[in-house]
Amino acid sequence: MTRTPLYEGKAKILFEGPEAGLIIQYFKDDATAYNAQKKDSISQKGVLNNLISAHLLPALGAIGIPHHFVERLNLREQLVKQVEIVPIEVIVRNVAAGSICSRLGLTEGEALPAPLIEFCLKDDALGDPVVAREHITVLGYADDDELDEIVYLTEKINDFLTGLFFAIGVRLIDFKLEFGRLESEDGYEIILADEISPDNCRLWDSQTNEKMDKDRFRRDLGGLVEAYSEIAKRLGLNIEFEANS
Description:
Elements: E1 5-8, E2 12-16, E3 22-27, E4 30-33, E5 38-41, H1 45-61, E6 69-72, E7 77-81, E8 84-85, E9 88-95, H2 99-104, E10 111-121, E11 130-131, H3 133-138, H4 144-167, E12 170-184, E13 187-193, E14 201-205, H5 215-218, H6 224-234
Antiparallel strand pairs: 1-2, 2-3, 3-7, 4-5, 6-7, 8-12, 9-10, 9-12, 10-11, 12-13, 12-14
């Protein structure tokens, strides 16, 4: 059956769904880093991200976080609600790692005094630059009420995920979120979109600080699928890989 692609990003393809208001999110094996300057394909990565995200989003829903996830359809696909994506990436940092170290002269692994929320404009051509709240509101990417809701949900998500990962021996170092506007009878509701997986979370083993996320690809450490599989196993998920892949 031929399906209509709506959008293709670095790690996923969105297809037209079975009915209005729903789309199909397909997880690719493509791996990118440094704004797609480094690229590769890693067999089964998409399968693992689909499985993990399909577990974490409903868990967040159970504590009152609205999200776009409906159901996992198969090894690589999810049915999700169609939203208008707010063109802002929300970065939550609990521990210094990645770009903030070079930007602000921090030492990797240095615990921050409190969780830090940063905003980046979602624009590959510009390198997803860090922006202030005033940039977002003045330039019309989101209004004050929407940003207040995004920050509130982000703080709640961070509290929950930090505890969830701590319970399975993993430190949640930082992670990226995206939000969308879901049309409703009262206008629009801000809900969590995209995915939550080792692709957009930094996850370190609590005992060894071993990296269990996409930094294994960024830094040529190898063992990415093994690390993602370990996260899935600790979450109690049954891993099923595609045959002949």
